[in-house]
Amino acid sequence: MFHESFKFYPSNREVINMFKKILVAYDGSDHAMRALDIGIDLAKKYEAKLDIVEVVDTAALLGMGVAPIPGEIIQQVYNKANTDVNGAKSKAQSQGVKDVEGVVLEGDPAAAVLEYAGKNGVDLIVTGSRGLSTFKRIVLGSVSTKLVQEAKMPVLVVK
Fold it and tell me: Which of 51, 73, 75, 109 is the most exposed place for a label (fewest CB within 10 A)?
């Protein structure tokens, strides 16, 4: 048999510290809400910090054929993102997550999430499986696909 000191499973302490910082890529969609629920559950179980990140994709606005983009349109998009993130943050806090941060970034959603995750020591990214239109997903690939392919840390995709 095996020596007594040989263990197949990590100790409880090691499991508890597996994820210290979890990022939820959020956009207010149904899939993102399910990803948030999973992120909240994991953050509570692992006593992890939870970062909720929404990215404003101004390039997508340009692609809609509105150029230059009126300032009030950009402000409405940022207001929606801030409202989404603040609501998600409140939900996480009300469900017992002690350390929650909400962040709104600008740029390509996958690239911005990956850059933030790398700079902030994120151990796990949780994202919804959908969020883009079918046409845009075919042409550009989905954010979740890019995260899975390019992230240096685990990515949990929630359907």
Answer: 75
pLDDT tens by residue, 16-57: 568 999 999 999 888 899 999 999 999 999 999 999 999 988
The model carries a pTM of: 0.82
CATH pick for 16-158 out of 3.90.850.10, 3.40.190.150, 3.40.50.620, 3.40.50.360 = 3.40.50.620
- Residues 6 or more apart whose CB falls under 8 angstroms from that of 77 comprise 56, 58, 61
pLDDT confidence band for 12 (50 / 70 / 90): low
Token pair of 57 as six digits: 């994709």
Nearest CA to 98 among 28, 38, 20?
Answer: 20
Q: Are 147 and 113 in contact (CB under 8 A)?
A: yes
Structure tokens at 17: 């510290």
